[in-house]
Amino acid sequence: MNRSGEKVIVGLSGGVDSAVAASLLLEQGYTVEAVFMKNWDDDDEQDSCPAEQDLKDARAVAALLAIPLHTISFSAEYWDRVFKHFLSEYAAGRTPNPDILCNQEIKFRAFLDYALELGGQRIATGHYARVRHTDVGWQLMKGLDEGKDQSYFLHRLDQRALAHSLFPLGALQKSEVRTIASRLNFPNSEKKDSTGICFIGERKFTDFLSRYLPALPGEITSVDGDVLGCHQGLMFHTIGQREGLGIGGQRNATGEPWYVVGKDLQHSRLLVAQGKNHPALFKSALEARDLHWISGQPPAVPLSCTARIRYRQPDQLCDIVDLDQERARVIFSTPQRAVTPGQAAVFYADEICLGGGTITT
Q1: pLDDT for 258-273, tens place per residue?
Q2: Cβ distance 31 to 6 under 8 Å?
Q3: Residues marked as catalytic
Q4: The domain 216-276 is classified under which CATH number: 2.30.30.280, 3.30.750.200, 3.40.140.10, 3.20.20.380?
Q5: Superfamily assignment of 281-359 in CATH?
């Protein structure tokens, strides 16, 4: 297909994935420009969020590909649309996933609007996912690399975003992407994948979070009611956590390590149980709120499908048995370990991502 004249604006992050995405679009005949987004003011912590190095790498790739590179900051949008929600969820004792809201509000809304202003017809990113158009609208599909599929993080995209989006890496394996980057002599061909909070980067999390929320210490209590120690704040802990509890010496008769199984926000108590497979760590059902359906319409229930309650989890058979505009109730075929309030439950029909919601219980 002749793509001559169709302009695509690529979100060039400085990483290898978006760099290869841009090169593939050029090979396919698109007119390509790039945008580098810097959306966090990190002047006081340059070592923990190397935005300057990312920009340097993005510039080097753009120069090699001979494409224009625009720079833009969505710091205000990120603070208002993503970070405030991130803090409110932690304050409520939940464990949010900011990457999901960041994709919805920044990469596929603010960036999309900016790209259209630049005259682009579509945007592209280095996400491992696919998109296709059918008689019933646009669908988000899993990436073919099972270990890198990022549809989980993209489940809040809407029809407008998908209609204007390209995912050039969706049918590739990560190893193939590295090979392409090496062949093209990209300076970031061996750069490690980014981790940490979207646009903020890798930081010592307890110190970072303490800058924005007051830490409220409390007791660490077993499910049997025994006080085992103290925590510095419920926000520093998540369901299923083993490390960093400071109660390793109290193993009781079983000798097994302790795991976080719940939070008592009212009394600032952290609830723990002993053993990786303790029954308190497992649930056969969950409820989710803040639902989003990619088609724009909720499915008919009861619905047999699969779900993921964390990134890279294998698909789990489940039934959505109750659904309205506010909430969904989901029952799993097998009990799920460490169901975490604040994280996303994302639903699938084979390779199609249907949408998802935020786990409440």
Answers
A1: 999 999 999 999 999 9
A2: yes
A3: 102, 198
A4: 2.30.30.280
A5: Translation factors (2.40.30.10)
